[in-house]
Here is the input.
Amino acid sequence: MAALLPAEWIKNWEKGGKSEFVQLCRALSENKNHDVGFRDIQQALYELAYHVVRGNLKHDQASNVLGDVIEFREDMPSILADVFCILDIETSCLEEKNKRDHFTQLVLACLYLVSDTVLKERLDPETLESLGLIKQSQQFNQKSVKIKTKLFYKQQKFNLLREENEGYAKLIAELGQDLSGNITSDLILENIKSLIGCFNLDPNRVLDIILEVYECRPEYDDFFVPLIESYMYMCEPQTLCHILGFKFKFYQDPSGETPSSLYRVAAVLLQHNLIDLEDLYVHLLPGDNAIIEEHKREIVEAKQIVRKLTMVVLSSEKTEEKEKEKEKEEEKTEKPPDNQKLGLLEALLKIGDWHHAQSIMDQMPPFYSTSHKPIAIALCQLVHVTIEPLYRRVGVPKGAKGSPISSLPNKRAPKQAESFEELRKEVFNMLCYLGPHLSHDPILFAKVVRLGKAFMKEFQSDGSKQEDKEKMETLFSCLLSITDQVLLPSLSLMDCNACMSEELWGMFKTFPYQYRYRLYGQWKNETYNSHPLLVKVKAQTIDRAKYIMKRLTKENVKPSGRQIGKLSHSNPTILFDYILSQIQKYDNLITPVVDSLKYLTSLNYDVLAYCIIEALANPEKERMKHDDTTISSWLQSLASFCGAVFRKYPIELAGLLQYVANQLKAGKSFDLLILKEVVQKMAGIEITEEMTMEQLEAMTGGEQLKAEGGYFGQIRNTKKSSQRLKDALLDHDLALPLCLLMAQQRNGVVFQEGGEKHLKLVGKLYDQCHDTLVQFGGFLASNLSTEDYIKRVPSIDVLCNEFHTPHDAAFFLSRPMYAHHISSKYDELKKAEKGNKQQHKVHKYITSCELVMAPVHEAVISLHLPKVWDDISPQFYATFWSLTMYDLAVPHSSYDREVNKLKVQMKAIDDNQEMPPNKKKKEKERCTALQDKLLEEEKKQLEHVQRVLQRLKLEKDNWLLAKSTKNETITKFLQLCIFPRCIFSAIDAVYCAHFVELVHQQKTPNFSTLLCYDRVFSDIIYTVASCTENEASRYGRFLCCMLETVTRWHSDRVIYEKECGNYPGFLTILRATGFDGGNKADQLDYENFRHVVHKWHYKLTKASVHCLETGEYTHIRNILIVLTKILPWYPKVLNLGQALERRVHKICQEEKEKRPDLYALAMGYSGQLKSRKPFMIPENEFHHKDPPARNAVPATVQNGPGGAGMPTSLTINTVRLEEGATEETDKLKEKSQGVVKVINKTVNATPKVTTSNGNSASNSKIIKEKDDKEKSGKEKDKEKKDKTPAATPEMKALGKDGKDKPKEERANKEEKAREIKEKTPKSDKEKEKVKKEEKASKEEKSKTVVTIIESKSTAEKEREKEPSRERDLAKEMKSKENAKGGEKVPVAGSLKSPVPRSETSESEREQKRRKVDTHSSPSHSSTVKDNLNELKESSAKHYINHTTPTLSKSKEREVEKKDLDKSRERSREREKKDEKDRKDRKRDHSNSDREVPQDSTKRRKEENGTTGSSKHSKSESPSDSPRLNEKEKEKNKSKSSGKEKGDSIKAEKMEKSSSGSKKESRHDKEKTEKKEKRDSTGGKEEKKHHKSSDKHR
Here is the structure.
């Protein structure tokens, strides 16, 4: 520290040092900082004195200056004394005596400045003695010791109670007097002091007595608290705490019970801060460790109880023992040891000292303190008081009075809440400490909930400032926490209090469902584990739920329902979780459970919705059965339960719908099952493939007819539930998103989900997705108002291009919108002009259609490539997609049926004697009203349909633009319109069929009806194979309706002439130039139409048999479904039916063990097919087999499979030749029609020429178009065939390499050998033939090698140029024969043969014979005029020449032909004889009817040519025993396949033959021509007879 007195000052003391020192001291004493000034002055004085001690300054100089300085501060003498004290100590240690003397002199000089007393305090006794202030230091020391002992160590004698009872009696009287007057605590305190003094009372004992009296007089807080406070000033601070602690200790015996008055006194003293909680807390028992241990023990006990409840106990005795044990335990635990901490806590809560109470609670485990009922009730009471003013202001319901609660008397209690903000700060905290134990006070529970409700009302009303909003947000989150931590757990502990549940729902329904579900989730999965009591409650609930569910049946739904209701009020989550787990296992519980849920509260229904969603979303559950082909039964059960429960009870749907939408977003479509069920049950809209045709018909009417006749169940009372569903969808904007997600997910099922899944399951999911879309769309269309619908569904181009909705789905969603639009526009126009004439109305309707549809026509252009619109107009496309069955036809029969039902009902009501009259009246009124509604609806629909047809009539000319061929137009029409829509829904399937008929009836330009039907029926394999199960069913319906129309036309010439006769759809224009045969010549006449129909039937058979033979699950299942659907109209022809029957029977046998679902389908179909057998007719009744030389008969249907122009000497394999011929014919047609014209000119009387491929070259445009179509389709077909295993042998047959040929040869040889073995009897001739064949084949092999090489290149060119779909099919069939061989022979045989085989061996023989006969008989051509024969001969030569390069492909087939040449000649002679006999027989019959000769000739021709050819017959053995001919001919009479078979069978047969044996040597060709001549001469014999039949025609 720097010296304050510089040496200069001391040296020049008198001159200036003294004054400087005085100034320094003045300055220091004026320093505002008191402590700093004090230290500096001390230092200055010390330095001055030290200079004196050292002798630098004289003591009188120092004493003078100190005299001047002493006045500067009051405490200057004291400071100086301190300085002397320090110097005293320092100098006494020094050895220099002079310094000590200087010090003594200085002190003596300054005695007048410092009093003796101060010096006596500070200086040593020896110094004092030397200064003369005391006489003897020793005496002085002794005296001070005595005084100290007296002061500190001598105990003062106080009197205790028994020693001074008078004083204490006076004290008690003083404290116990009446305090109501103006006696104050100060007055009493003075009296107490005087009593203590007078009677020498012990002050601690006095304090103890004051506390005792206070305990007995708790009402005088205002007196005693100030008294104790004042008294404490006389005591040490800890005294009061120790006295209280001593009192508590006194009661800590095991038997002792602390009185509540003591707790209260302690609480009051704590509240007034007279003692510290920490000081008192240590005196209380039990210790905190003991409390924590007890808490843990409670949890363990709770878990044990749960274990006991879940254990399976068998004997009833054990349970009784357990009950006794439980009772004992309860008795033991009834009286817990005294917990002073909890007693104090309760007292604190009662007086409203929340601050200290909270501190005690924080020391204990959570909810430990409030789990003691008195504490919980005390805390509830405190909350009651705190919320009172706010509750009175906003919480009291209208009309309720309520009992007001007075506030606590003391001012230190928590402030009462006046606003929600204060509520949050004060009350929410208290509630959190209360937790589940709010259950002790249901009234407070209700109050809190009502405050919550009031808050939500305020929260949801807008218009508050930003700051307020933030506050409100905070409050809202706090409210949610309180709900989660307090309200729901408390509800669990309440005993089935339905009112509380409803009260809580009042608040819950104001929360968005996301918050509610979050709360339920916490409640269900976390809350129950947080507290031992809740753990027990959960176990008891499950136990009780098991008890109820075990006994629940349909019979006791009511009592069980009441029990479920009771249980659900408190613990819905646990109960529903268990119930749902049972439903997932046992679906027969669904109905009783749904019925038993009628006693639930609104909250419980909401919780049920949450539990259902949670169960659905359970990640541990597999959504597929273990076989991976079907959806799990638990999911199906839950979905079914969902539908039922949401329909019956007013449960909010938003969560469930959002869940489905979220699943779809995630690309999972399993859960659509739920949506499907919900819509079905709530809106009554069923989606079922099992609809009868009657129901389907009813579905095409108005809403009333749909409701009455369209559904399986009577749809009743869905108005409310469908309204609820609609509101949920609109409120949460889920209507359109769900539609779009489903539409997108349909393909997602296949391409995203379907990767690893079983094909069957993928199909199921696809169907489910599609059906739900249709059902949901139907629901929206019928339930949304026009505005709602239009507002939500965007335009068609947006749907397709932006949302990537498939076109069929997009139009499905938009269709109702167009209908709404048109009808509203129409109504506007009607109102604008009052003209009532029908024409006016129609005109207005058409105008409104144009207004609405014009933008749609624009919009659809973007959906397809510009090339598409060359063939069909956007208007046609939009019209097709925007109309429905409702627009096209009125289901009169359905309306009549329903009206008649109502009439019957009314009659029944009249006849019912038991029904009371008023009920009768009501029922009759209901029926009459319904009847009127239906009739009104029918009338309305009829007018509507007439308007629509009128509109279509005007539009039709612009529909099909024909910028390319008709064929192309039909392709586009089928591809973009018919096929996508016919598999969309059952009604759409009917619509498509009806629309085709309508387009035909409207005489639409450029629309070939024939071609359209032909394309639909011709090759259904691909379409069938690519369908799902339900699509197959719809496709079947479509084919059924198409067949119905065709069958109607086929059934009666009058109908045909009326509906098709001169319609443009039946034109077959391909006229030779310069020929004018009149318009009639361009039409397909009735008989030829029947041939065509037969061809279609045959094609269907062929496709069906193919599908059944593939062994593929999808092919077999789908074709069986399709066949079942078309059963009313197909098969009609006996032999086709039998072929099918055999194949289906085989499926039944093969699949019985392997694939039971296919077995069931096949058995079902087989049974139905048998029942239809009596209605089938022989082929010759189905279509007449006319001579080919008729004017209007297209050659399509004239020739037998062998073709009249085919040479007789050709072997079996010549059949294959024909296909080559077909190809050549087609090629010729395409390249130029010149040849055709030439051929036509060569025929004088017949403008239609017979070509060897069985198609008419010039007559039917239809055929040309078919070829065009086939051209476009060939590439596809080829690709498909490459993939089909069955197609591989066929590829070989198409002869790429010599390598393949020997294999085929081998296959054919094996086949032959096997068939020969099968035949009985065997003749020697046959054996010889076989040997010869073998020899010949060996010779032939060497000859044909050269030809093969030459022909390869040409063959390939031909194949590329000529895409014929029929040929491909035929190849496929043939390849199948080769590939399968062996046992498959019969299968393939029946596939190919429409000819039935009644007995195996016999039929095989017949087939063998037929095969041989194919070309050996002088078939149809025999009746044709010579010029025709010549023409045929030349055309045959022409075609054969053409096909030679192609035909020379398959060596093996040539060999076979060679082998069989000779045998053919023999059998031909035999058959000529037989034929003559048969003709004679038939002439006898023909006398009765003029038509008969014609028929018989046809039959004969068919027997020898067509049926005989039995293109499908598998057997290739060269001949058969002659005696079978007669039998076979008889059979053939009944089962001959007619002209149309010439179209289908022959054409295909020829195609097959050509594709099969394209390698034909020139040597063979010459033979062929010779035989052909021979044939034609043979045919001349019958010429006369045929001429007569022609005339008759």
In short: The chain has 74 helices and no strands.
